[in-house]
Design goal:
Elements: H1 2-8, E1 11-12, E2 14-17, E3 20-23, E4 30-31, H2 37-51
Antiparallel strand pairs: 1-4, 2-3
Length: 70
Amino acid sequence: KLHKLMAAVGFARTIQGTNGTFDLPHATYYGQSYIAVSDLRDSLRDKIKATIQNNILVFVAETEAWAMGW
């Protein structure tokens, strides 16, 4: 249920790197948003609590750049 909800709001379980697409750790999502991180957190938390699980911790981070490698 969580994966479907997150996909519906535009967040993916994978990330695109220079060497292909990579799976993110369990219950970790990547996406783009134009609202404040606290507003996004609250929106996601409310949706998750209403449909999936009431006892949930939602962590949202805003990044400017990232790098990935082995």
